[in-house]
C-alpha cells in the first residue's frame, strides 16, 4: 500500500510545486516507486517543472472521467526509473475533481507505488481539499512571512477536521513543516522570521529549511527538479529533507549566513 | 547607506513585530475554530438576551470554550458598567457555565442538551466578582 503525501500551504506561490517535484524525485532517487500528481486543475504547471510538458496526452481528469486509463495518463520520468508524473487538465475547473474519482485513482496508484505525492493548489477550496483529503502525511510548505504562516495554520486546522483520517476518527495525518525561501541574512538583520519563530507559532516538527536560491529558477527554466542540481544549496536542502522524511537524523544546514569576511560584508551593506 | 549606519543601533526588528502580531491573531483564530458549529449563534443570542437587561459594551465581552475530558465549559466574561458614577470602577463578570456531556459535541445531537449550570444567574451570588 502506497503512502499518500500532500504538499499544501493555503497561500499561493510559496513553493508547493517546486517542493512536490523535488520531493518526489528525491524519494525515487532513494529507490522508492513514486508518482507525483498535479491537483491544480486548470493551472497545470507540475509538467513544466518536471520537464515533461510535451509528453502530456491524457491527464488526471481524463482518468477520473473514464476517458483514459491510468496507464495512458501516467508519464514515466526519463531521468529516473522509479518516477512517474500524473499531470492535470488545463481546461477544466476544480469541480472536475470528485471525491469518488480521486479515491479511485489513488487506490489504483497505491497498488503500484510506494509514495504518492500530491501537489495541492493554493487556497482552501475544492482542489486543495481533494489534495489533502486522502493524505497520510502532510508537508506544510511555508515561507517565513506573516500571511504564509497564518495560512499554514489554517491548513493545519483543515487537516485536523476535514481530512479522511479526521472524519473517520483514524490516526491523524502526520504533519511536518518545510520552510522555504529562507534567507538567513535577512533573518540575521531582523527582517525575516526565524525558523524557531515559525516553529514556535505553528508547533509542528521541522522537516527542512530550503534557502532562497537562484538555482530554483534556473532549474525550472530547464524543466529539472532542483533536487537534481546537487551543487546548489536548495538541491542539497531538499535531499536532506527527503532523508529526514525517511526517518534519518540529518543536521539542518543553510540556516545561518555563510561566513563572509568583514570587507565583503561592508561592501554588500553599502551596495 | 553610510558607513555610520552600520554601527547604528537597530530599530526594533520588524521580524519581532511579525512574530508578535502572528501570535495574537492566531490565538484568536484558533480559539474560534475549535468550537462546534452552533457556538457563534449561541454566543450572539446569549449576548442579545443579556443586552436586553444590561447595557453592556460588546467590546468588553470575552467568550471562551474549554474542552475538558467529558465536560466542556463555555465561559462568558462580561464586564458590567459601574452602577454609579461615584462607585469606583467595579468590574463584575458573569460566568455562565454551559456543560455539554461530550467533548466533541456535534451540531443537533440530542444528548448535547445545553444547560445553564450553577452560577448562571446574573443577579444573585452566582455573579463572580473580579478583585
Ligand atoms: N527556495 C526558493 N528560492 C527561490 N525561489 C523559489 C524557491 N522556492 C520557490 N521559488 C519560486 O517561487 C515561485 C513559486 O513557486 P511554486 O510554483 O513552487 O509555488 P506554489 O506554491 O506551487 O504556487 P501555487 O500556489 O501557484 O501553486 C516560483 O517562481 C519559484 O521559482
Ligand atoms: Mg503550484
Automatic annotation (TrEMBL), chain A:
Q: Which UniProt keywords apply?
A: ATP-binding, Cell cycle, Cell division, Nucleotide-binding, Septation
Functional summary from the UniProt entry: ATPase required for the correct placement of the division site. Cell division inhibitors MinC and MinD act in concert to form an inhibitor capable of blocking formation of the polar Z ring septums. Rapidly oscillates between the poles of the cell to destabilize FtsZ filaments that have formed before they mature into polar Z rings.
GO MF terms on file?
Answer: ATP binding; ATP hydrolysis activity
Where do transmembrane segments lie in this chain?
Answer: none
The entry sums up its family as follows: Belongs to the ParA family. MinD subfamily.
Subunit and interaction comment: Interacts with MinC and FtsZ.
> According to its record, what are the GO cellular component terms?
cytoplasmic side of plasma membrane; cytosol
Which protein are we looking at? Septum site-determining protein MinD
Q: Which Pfam families match?
A: AAA_31
Residues covered by the AAA domain: 3-154
Q: Name one GO biological process term.
A: negative regulation of cell division
Q: What is the lineage of its organism?
A: Bacteria, Pseudomonadati, Pseudomonadota, Alphaproteobacteria, Rhodospirillales
Keyword Lipid biosynthesis listed: no
Q: Where does ATP bind?
A: 11-18
Please list which residues make up the signal peptide: none
Gene symbol of the encoding locus = minD
Give the InterPro entries listed for this entry: AAA_dom (IPR025669), MinD (IPR010223), MinD_FleN (IPR025501), P-loop_NTPase (IPR027417), ParA/MinD_ATPase (IPR050625)
Automatic annotation (TrEMBL), chain B:
Using the record for this protein, list the coiled-coil segments as residue ranges, or answer none.
Answer: none
Concerning InterPro entries, the annotation shows: MinE, MinE_sf
- Keywords of this entry: Cell cycle, Cell division
The protein's GO terms of the molecular function aspect are:
identical protein binding
Gene3D superfamilies hit by this protein: Cell division topological specificity factor MinE
Please give the superkingdom of this protein's source.
Bacteria
Q: Name one GO biological process term.
A: cell division
Region annotated Disordered sits at: 99-131
Q: Which NCBIfam families match?
A: minE (TIGR01215), PRK00296.1 (NF001422)
What's this protein's family per the entry? Answer: Belongs to the MinE family.
The record describes the protein's role as: Prevents the cell division inhibition by proteins MinC and MinD at internal division sites while permitting inhibition at polar sites. This ensures cell division at the proper site by restricting the formation of a division septum at the midpoint of the long axis of the cell.
Q: What is this protein called?
A: Cell division topological specificity factor
Source organism (scientific name)? Azospirillum brasilense
Classification of source organism: Bacteria, Pseudomonadati, Pseudomonadota, Alphaproteobacteria, Rhodospirillales
Amino acid at each position: 500500500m502506497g503512502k499518500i503525501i500532500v504538499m499544501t500551504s493555503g497561500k499561493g506561490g510559496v513553493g508547493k510545486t517546486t517542493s512536490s517535484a523535488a520531493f518526489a524525485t528525491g524519494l525515487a532517487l532513494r529507490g522508492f516507486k513514486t508518482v507525483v500528481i498535479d491537483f491544480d486543475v486548470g493551472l497545470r504547471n507540475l509538467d513544466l517543472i518536471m520537464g515533461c510538458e510535451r509528453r502530456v496526452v491524457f491527464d488526471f481528469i481524463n482518468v477520473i472521467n473514464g476517458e483514459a486509463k491510468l496507464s495512458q495518463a501516467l508519464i514515466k520520468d526519463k531521468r529516473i526509473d522509479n518516477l512517474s508524473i500524473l499531470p492535470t487538465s488545463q481546461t477544466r475547473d476544480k469541480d472536475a475533481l470528485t471525491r469518488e474519482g480521486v479515491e479511485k485513482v489513488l487506490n489504483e496508484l497505491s497498488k503500484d507505488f510506494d509514495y504518492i505525492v500530491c501537489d495541492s493548489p493554493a487556497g482552501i477550496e475544492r482542489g486543495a481539499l481533494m489534495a489533502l483529503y486522502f493524505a497520510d502525511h502532510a508537508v506544510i510548505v511555508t515561507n517565513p512571512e506573516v500571511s504564509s504562516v497564518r495560512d499554514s495554520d489554517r491548513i493545519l486546522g483543515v487537516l485536523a477536521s476535514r481530512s479522511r483520517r479526521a472524519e473517520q476518527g483514524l490516526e491523524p495525518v502526520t504533519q511536518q513543516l518545510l520552510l522555504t525561501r529562507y534567507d538567513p541574512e535577512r533573518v540575521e538583520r531582523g527582517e525575516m522570521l526565524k525558523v524557531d519563530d515559525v516553529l514556535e507559532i505553528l508547533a509542528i516538527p521541522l522537516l527542512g529549511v530550503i534557502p532562497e536560491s537562484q538555482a530554483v529558477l534556473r532549474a525550472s527554466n530547464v524543466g529539472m527538479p532542483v533536487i537534481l542540481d546537487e551543487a546548489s544549496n536548495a538541491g542539497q536542502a531538499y535531499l536532506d529533507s527527503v532523508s529526514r522524511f525517511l526517518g534519518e537524523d540529518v543536521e539542518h544546514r543553510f540556516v545561518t549566513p555563510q561566513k563572509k569576511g568583514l570587507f565583503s560584508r561592508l561592501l554588500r551593506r553599502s551596495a | 547607506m553610510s558607513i555610520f549606519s552600520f554601527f547604528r543601533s537597530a530599530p526594533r526588528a520588524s521580524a519581532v513585530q511579525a512574530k508578535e502580531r502572528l501570535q495574537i491573531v492566531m490565538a484568536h483564530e484558533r480559539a474560534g475554530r475549535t468550537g462546534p458549529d452552533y457556538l457563534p449563534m449561541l454566543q450572539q443570542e446569549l449576548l442579545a438576551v443579556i443586552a436586553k437587561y444590561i447595557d453592556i459594551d460588546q467590546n468588553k465581552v470575552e467568550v471562551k470554550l474549554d474542552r475538558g475530558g467529558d465536560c466542556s465549559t463555555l465561559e462568558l466574561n462580561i464586564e458590567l458598567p459601574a452602577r454609579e458614577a461615584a462607585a469606583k470602577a467595579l468590574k463584575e463578570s458573569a460566568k455562565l457555565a454551559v456543560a455539554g456531556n461530550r467533548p466533541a459535541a456535534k451540531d443537533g445531537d440530542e444528548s448535547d442538551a445545553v444547560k445553564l449550570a450553577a452560577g448562571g444567574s446574573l443577579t444573585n451570588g452566582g455573579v463572580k466578582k473580579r478583585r
